[in-house]
Amino acid sequence: MSENNCIQYINCHCYMTIQSLQIKARMFSRISLISLIMIPVIWSQDWQVQYSSMMKCALKGSNTHLSGSYKHPNHLTMIKTFWIVNPVKGEETINLVDHPDYKGRVQYSQNKDGIFFLSLSNVTHKDEGMYCLRIVAKEDKYLFFPGIDLKVTELRVEIPEEAVEGKSSILFCKTTCHLSDKTNFTWFKNSKRLSESNVSDQLLLPSVSTDDTGNYSCAVTDHKHLSSPAVTLSVRYPPKSVSVSISPSEIVEGDSVTLICSSDSNPPALNFSWFKENQSSAVGCGQSFIISSFNSSHSGRYYCEAQNKYGSQRSASVSLTSAGDQKAVLYAAAAIGAMLICICIFIVVKKNIRKTGDAGGQSGVSKQEENNSTAVTDQTSAKPPKPADLNESVYASITHSRPREQQRDGDEDEVQYATVQHHRNTRNTTAEDGCQNGNSVSAGSNTEKADDSNVIYSSIKSS
Questions:
Q1: CATH 2.60.40.10 fits 41-153, yes or no
Q2: Which UniProt keywords are present, listed alphabetically (predicted)?
Q3: Model confidence over 209-227: pLDDT tens digits?
């Protein structure tokens, strides 16, 4: 082997040896670094550093807290401890208190257990990054990397692609990072809080109706002022309240007539069909149905049917008639009404005539009976009794009248019988002798005895 070759070999060997040593040194430094940054506790030559967590999710606009604790070797004298963000090798680190992007939003504190806190207010997306503890000792400076990875999120409501009436739907309150498991949520509809019992990040609508339509938002219970942007939930439903309007309102033969079909639906109905009663097939389609020249053959009852992808509904029927037909109908109705009124008047008048006739007949009969009774009485009192009749006293029939109103219809006249007794003088004194002697003859005298064989019955008519 030549000398030059030997030198090259040595040089090459030396170079390879040096390169191998460099690679080994790098591997050793990486292994040492890995051992230094063990999560969540970092050990390095009697150093012990522990962060509260290696990842933190904060709500935009809120205040967040990061913390870490450490133990240092006894031979070191601590001078200063602070937090830095996103350290870069070879660059000087800046205390967050002095950082222009954090000025006035950073506070440090330490409790009796040696835990060092960082309080960051009004968090924004610019604050995302790696937060590490920086410790300055009298002897040296120490940086403990990696630290806490801070993520900032906003809330947003996620609604289903379509909420159909009658079906269930779920709304979600979404974040870009995971908040604490103990986080409670509050739901709002049209800026009004919904049920307090629901603290989940999901809102269940078991049976959706049109009343559920509105603007929904959510918020973390402890930060209600940081609610999500409102999202509109639009409930889909088939056509409702389908109706038909007619233009013009008064139709004359030869005029153009337009029927318009209206409905309430979501999405709006796009398919409209027109039907005429007593016809099996549709007579037209589209939201408007136009009859260019109206005549009597077009008269009838029409209705429309509106349809969207969720269902259909028909309207009530409307009647189409020309003005002449309408007048004829009105005249006919007026004639029938007048006829009915005449019939009613005739019936009322007839009833009144009957009542008047009955009352007049009853009054005439009563007066006639009263006159007859008076006449009989007068004749009886004016005529002196014959001598042949003095032996027997005859009593006239008595008619008792009562108002006909008290009689029930169909009742027959009641007949009552009264006993008329004929008495003889026990002393065989005739009526004539008695009158001559000045004695009065009475039907109830104690000097007379009733002769049962001379009993006369007289009917008493009760009317």
A1: yes
A2: Membrane, Transmembrane, Transmembrane helix
A3: 999 999 999 999 999 999 9
